[in-house]
Design brief:
alpha/beta; Rossmann fold; ProC C-terminal domain-like fold; 2 domains; 8-stranded mixed beta sheet; 10 helices; elongated
Length: 270
Amino acid sequence: MTRKKVSIIGAGNMGGAIIKGLIDSGAYKADDLAAADPREETRTQLEKLYPGITVEASNKEILFTDILIAAVKPQFCGKVLTEISPYLRHDTVLVSIAAGITLGQIADWLDKPVKLIRAMPNTPLLAGEGMTGLCPGADVLDKDIENVKKIFNAVGETMIMAEHQMDAFTALAGSSPAWVFMFIEALADGAVKEGIPRAPAYDAAAQAVLGAAKLMRESGMHPAELKDRVCSPGGTTIAGTAALEKAGFRAAVIQAVEDCTRRSRELGTQ
């Protein structure tokens, strides 16, 4: 196999999303990429969707690469990394997206000098709007960081995070899309209850969330100020806002971030 620019171990939900995003964005061609996955149906689908991509059943067959992304679940990370360690090249940058798994744990499993970067992407990268936290190891060069940023910037945005922040970032950006989807669903359910058909209710709710986020970023205003601008005295919005406050909306979101952060830390100890 010729040397690849990016190889990905695991073509499941996140690994598959990264492959799709990289090719759809035009940042990489299919023949720049390689992927390994034990499931025959997944390999067949990748070859059908992206002609030219190298697809293998064995992880060892895709290690001749500039950047290797380990898109495996935390509970399988140790086994996979231990198995590939003897075949991993010293000039390959290894990127792990396993929640809760520290750089130190990865280094112990590999038991050899390897340039390491922790990453926490999220599924909106499928739409080119991902947010990925990157935590480079001490031996990673600036050019390596830029090359990894290129991958994730092709499907969204990146932030460099200290390692002690990565578990909280998992909640803030990695898991939070699920909660946003819950909010959209609940918002639409309320509209359906009040007589709006479900399809336009979903469309309107999604656009309201998208537009609000875009307005906050482009205006540079504090979210509280933007909220206050919509809440006219004695108006409809403040009535709904009071209902959310009464139901503990803010406290529930904060608690979700805390619980998610704690669970990410737990995954690193199992």
